[in-house]
Amino acid sequence: MILNIKYFGVLADITKKKEEQLVLDDSNLTVNSLKLKMESVYQELQKNSYSIAVNQTLSGMEVSIKDQDVIAFLPPFAGG
Question: pTM here?
């Protein structure tokens, strides 16, 4: 499975990347399991609040992720 991961705001600062491509063997991946994987790689993410979007839609933690999905790690939004 190939995933396109994008980071925004402070999350891009933490990862030192705006985007990356991941190749994973896991075929039963959920948003939550990906979140845990990424927090083990980038431990600073654990200290931050953020949302995750799959293919430009904010997603719950149990949403399944499929091959070629675009995953965005989004910092909190400010209204205005």
Answer: 0.91
